[in-house]
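mind reviewing both lines:
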Amino acid sequence: MKIMKFGGTSVGSAERMGAVSQLLPTQEPVIVVLSAMSGTTNHLVQIGQQLAQGDVAQAESLTAQLEQHYKQVIAELYKQEASKDKGKQVIEVVFSEIRACFNHPFSPASEKIILAQGELLSTQLFKIFQDEKGTPSVLLPALDFMKITPDEEPDHAFIRENLRKLLDQYPDNQLFITQGYICRNAKGEIDNLKRGGSDYTASIVGAAVKASEIQIWTDINGMHNNDPRIVKNTYPIAELSFDEAAELAYFGAKILHPSSILPAQQHNIPVRLLNTMEPEAAGTTISSKRTGNKIKAVAAKDGIIAIKIKSSRMLLAYGFLRSVFEVFERFKTPIDMITTSEVAVSLTIDNITYLPEITEALQRFGTVEIDTELTIVCVVGDFMEDKPGAALKVVQSLGHIPLRMISYGGSKNNISFLVNTIHKEDALLSINEGVFQEREENHA
């Protein structure tokens, strides 16, 4: 069985939904994972924000706008009146669900109910489209099998068992459609896998059914070697290892949700990144295959905060780092980079939710300094320790840029640099010139 996930731009209009339908195989079983149509989730977020501020009138106005948009989608998507009537019924139910949240105090639970409606809309409308074409399909409600634990991690055993029960009810069907992003939490309430979570859904589902392949369809030709918004003439990387792709996704490559690599990697399921606008393009294949000792790509992650704890008590003190890490564990804040000296430890985070509490807790160890508006520039490849020269080439290309921190050796796939965000574009351009220029000319 193959998994095919289509993002918001891929199903962003009636025309795009029709194009997606043409990409589906007819001779092999496939689970199609759909995001909300492009712009929908942002619109739903705005509705929730207005409700949180107590402005029900503005929330209703935004809801009416979105409802009218979907009525237009139905008019363009379907040819038969019977299909249009089914689409109108879907819209009526979904928007009644949204408006039901207007009638009681707004809460995180009602916000998640509202945010779930985008995927519920796109999948039901796509199912009706398949029916109109005469293509047999089954809608698998993600809320019937996709569940997270109290720690907000996928409940893989529950997902595997309940998804298999649903699939077993339709042994003769080849095409299944389900929602990305949405799930239920440990309390049974509607929840989600956070923004970009449809990729994660596809990978979790792929692992649950032991898929032959997971395809992530977006609007660009795979993962590029640099940020195409900043650097000209970037090119898609044909092959990446799971570890390389995970590093790039975590450190800023927006094409792929950072969490989506692990389930596929654990079950050795290849992941392909493909372009719905150019389906003939090769894209990027992510697998367990090692692709040689070379630098593959660079990504940048903004919004980084550096924390420096300076204390003479660090000298020869065992247990010091453990005590520091326990602070971040207590406040559920992951650390990206870390460097140490005899009297100081510097580290970075990208979540400021508990920064005041973290700062206060760390002050009992020594002087705490906080720096903001920083960026991690991550260079990814296969940096074998017995192959000299690769790291030197990267560092030399950044020789004119002040480097706040360097992390090398923690992974054979990653060299990371911390710079002021004002130097981000210069860093990406310099690495492109110093490392990728020759390959770019070959791809021109």
Observations:
- Residues 439-444 have pLDDT under 50 and may be disordered.
- The longest helix spans residues 108-133.
- The two ends are 37 Å apart (CA to CA).
- The longest strand covers residues 295-310.
